[in-house]
Amino acid sequence: MAKVKLLKLAHARSGDKGDMANVGLIALKPEYYPILVKEVTAARVKEHFRGICLGEVERFELPNLGALNFLLHESLDGGGTISLKTDAQGKTYSTALLRMEIEVPDSVAF
Amino acid sequence: MKPVRIANGQGFWGDSLQAPIEQVRRGPIDYLTLDYLAEITMSIMQKQRARDPRSGYARDFVSMIEEVLPDLVERKIKVVANAGGVNPEACRDAVIEVAKRAGFAGKIKIGVVAGDDIMDRLDDYLARGVELNNMETGESLATVRSRVQSANVYFGGRAVADCLAKGAQIVIAGRVTDTGLALGPAIHEFGWAADDWDRLAAGTIAGHTVECGAQCTGGNCLVDWETIPAPADIGYPIVEAQPDGTFVITKHEGTGGRITVASIKEQLLYEMGDPREYITPDCVADFTTIQLEQAGADRVRFSGIKGRPATDLYKVSVSYSAGWKASGSLVYGWPDAMKKAEAADRITRERLERLGLKFDHIVTEFVGANACHGPLAGDPSPDIAEVQWHIGVRSEDKHAVERFTREIAPLVLNGPPTVTGFGGGRPKVEEIIAYWPALMPKSEVAPVISAVEA
User: Fold this and answer.
1) B290 has a chain A CB within 8 A of its CB
2) Contact, B386 vs B419, CB < 8 A?
3) pLDDT of residue A110
4) Does residue A65 belong to the interface with chain B, where contact is any CB pair within 8 Å?
5) B390 part of contact set with chain A, CB < 8 Å
6) Can you say whether the dihedral through the CA atoms of B61, B209, B118, B163 is positive or negative?
7) Neighbouring C-beta atoms of residue B227, cutoff 10 Å
8) Coil vs helix vs strand at B40
């Protein structure tokens, strides 16, 4: 087994709904999707975003797209026009998630 | 069957002015759709209309129509836009004036979808027990009633289709959903029934895919972003819709950008909640049923989409005044740029305290070090070339926010060294307009649809 950043296995896009950010995590190859499902749990994402996500994290599976969707509640300082953050819409949370390191078989880690 | 080509030329009010013109001129399309409304837009437009009863809509739309009107008439291209804002009738009158001036009087019919603006009826609804509680917090609207700036119901694609059925070549809507702008033409062309949930869901997902303009054609695309062809000439998306609910997303030949399964997946997940429950006024779409396939260069085919019955509620967006905010920044240079920026922050916070100013919240960021990814970015290099210190405050007390704006510039002379970046002047105090999402029974409100000759 080896540690790799999600950046090697997935791409992502994020956006906002009020004070909640969503991060869509998409497997770069179909064989990576089960790894994402197993490793990138809601609890791990909540831990990863500590200090940023103050609420709960929900996870939804889209096997048809090889993708997971995460909802990060209370993550945008109130969101929209209230927020004082540079990234009030959470648009860069996509690559913030791709910083996460997970354990994968050596064959996947190249 | 020859597909119906539904183009998107605007992802938000402020998107490329050139995109809709290129969509009309660089290849064949049947419909041009344009999304102008964000939640904040409605409150801005309410304020404009309060000052001038002839305003309160997207003026950019009228200039755009003026430029492409000869093409629209000659090629019978229809236009659907939520450019009407809080005054769609005034927007229509402005378009009619432009059409007459250009010699198209009697040659084009302009439609309006209105009835979404419930600002004047709020007290009546509340008195009759239509509660409009906050969807997220459950609070009663009464808590912010006196500060409400705008209130609009989201109508769907069906209202757009009904307007097209009246013969409108240009449909000017108020608060119609972004997805309804593309679904409406599909309903009109194919006669999809109000309970044809799978096809309505397909049209909705087509609308979601193109509603953010070039964000599905290679814009903001993470996969292979450095090799996206000709980004300066990026093509905006076109739905090639079929009556059975399948469709292809493509763009005009010869334009830049790139449409792949990967670029499409990114957009599908944008601003997504529960993918099985994408709720619109027309249906509930299930994003877990979408099947994608690369069907040639810059062509992605969608099939298999399933939907479920619509709910009996409309979403309502209320905006209200929620205090004041301001933010300022300075740039600190090497050496010890980060330490200097941190010192500036400490000094400023201490000064605000000594002044006895009360804020609901103060946020500090160091651009170049942690503004995007916060603690995930780790500590910056001690040798970092420069850091932008950024501080923002918000308060119900406008005076406190105004006083804050005077505390940034003095640091240039009385704070840490190697400082610049104050050229923008004193920070601006902004009113915070917040949103109040609510639901209301569909039986309480209906779209008001009309169409007249220019």
Assistant:
1) yes
2) no
3) 66
4) yes
5) yes
6) positive
7) 8
8) helix
Contact B262 A84 (CB under 8 A): no
Nearest to A26 among B39, B265, B322 (CB): B265
Q: What are phi and psi of B215, to 5 degrees?
A: -70, -5
Residue numbers of B between 311 and 330 with CB closer than 8 Å to A:
322, 325, 327
Could you say which of B311, B341, B369 is where a domain stops? Answer: B311
Structure tokens at B329: 């920044």
Cβ within 8 Å, pair B272-A50: no
**Structure token pair of residue B147:** 């500060």
Check A62 against B275: CB less than 8 A apart: yes
Asked if the C-beta of A33 comes within 8 angstroms of chain B's C-beta atoms, the answer is: no
Closest CA to B255 of B14, B15, B18: B18
3-state secondary structure of B320: strand
Closest CB to A24 among B272, B376, B432: B272
Which residue in chain B is spatially nearest to A72 when comparing CA positions? B273
Distance CA(B320)–CA(B353), nearest Å, equals 29
Say if A78 falls within a structural domain.
Answer: yes
Q: What is the pTM of this model?
A: 0.96
Name the nearest CA neighbour of B290 among B272, B262, B259, B265.
Answer: B265
The number of folded domains in chain A is 1
Instruction: Please indicate if any CB of chain A lies within 8 Å of the CB of B38.
Output: no
Peptide bond into B28 cis (omega under 30): no
Based on the fold, state whether residues B192 and B288 are members of the same structural domain. yes
Residues 6+ apart with CB under 8 A from B71: B24, B25, B77
Q: Interface pTM (ipTM) of the complex?
A: 0.98
Distance from the B25 Cα atom to the nearest Cα atom in chain A, whole angstroms: 31
Question: Measured between CA atoms, how close is A90 to chain B, in angstroms?
Answer: 8
Domain boundary residue, one of B311, B341, B364: B311
* A48 within a domain of the structure (yes/no): yes
Q: CA torsion, points B146, B149, B154, B155, in degrees to nearest 10?
A: 100
| Count of domains forming chain B | 2
Interface contact A86-B39, CB threshold 8 A: no
Look at residue B223 in the predicted model and tell me its pLDDT: 96
Residue of B nearest to A51 (CA): B375
CATH number, domain with residue A59? 3.30.70
Question: What's the CA gap between B147 and B321, in Å, rounded?
Answer: 5
- Whichever domain contains B405, its CATH number is 3.30.70.120
pLDDT tens-digit series, residues B358-387: 999 999 999 999 999 999 999 999 999 999
B262 and B348 within one domain: no
Q: What is the pLDDT of residues B379-434, one digit of tens each?
A: 999 999 999 999 999 999 999 999 999 999 999 999 999 999 987 789 999 999 89
Instruction: Quote the tokens at residue B51.
Output: 């000052």
The alpha-carbon gap from A73 to the nearest alpha carbon of chain B, in Å, equals 11
Cα-based angle B113, B142, B124 (whole degrees, multiple of 5) = 50
Which structural domain range is residue A35 located in?
2-104
Q: A3, A103 in Cβ contact below 8 A?
A: yes
Q: If you ran DSSP here, which 8-state letter would residue B236 be given?
A: P
Residues B324 and B256 in one domain: no
